[in-house]
Amino acid sequence: TAVEGWPTGVTQSLLGKALLASGAHEEGLAHLRAAIPLAPRAHYDLGIELVDEGKLDEGLEHLQTVIAIWTSPPAGHLPSDLPSRRDVISARELIGRTFTAERRWSEAADQSRLILAMDPSNADAADRLGIGLVATGKLDEAIAAFRRAVAIDPTRGAAERNLANALFDHREIGEAAVHARRAVAISPGDPGAHDVLGRALALQNRF
Question: What is the rounded CA–CA span in Å between residue 98 and residue 30?
């Protein structure tokens, strides 16, 4: 095989991913681990796989390593052996989602901020930043984050609903109704959008 004849990190990593795709889980992970010294980008694929299988601590450690390598690249590697900017954004997205699932709101919000610093047009990160800020009681900042999300992507119904809820909680009922209507129009099957619209209209006495 290519790995036996020319055991580069890239070939080890490619073989590892192919084995994972074929269902040879443990063998695939072994090749990804073996790829790391020659191709540190393998931390990314390994981290994603470990998080997907529920080994969160180990998976997050590999994803954090991806970020550290991109920040201070080790010498002696080709660019293809190292994480890319897109890998770092993706790693932060998965770290942030994991923190959100664990209700580690402040840490999740920090990841969203860092993503937006690298990718200002990332509507998902802006939306998730707002969610983290709501959970930590920073409603004004959350509203700003949700406004950013819907400005980036006006078709994002969940962000419109989140903005409507935040505005409702901030007692800005009229504007909450406006965004709730938009959320319903974009995502008519979203019960949360209908709920916040109903609550806003009830306060406006406009059933």
Answer: 24
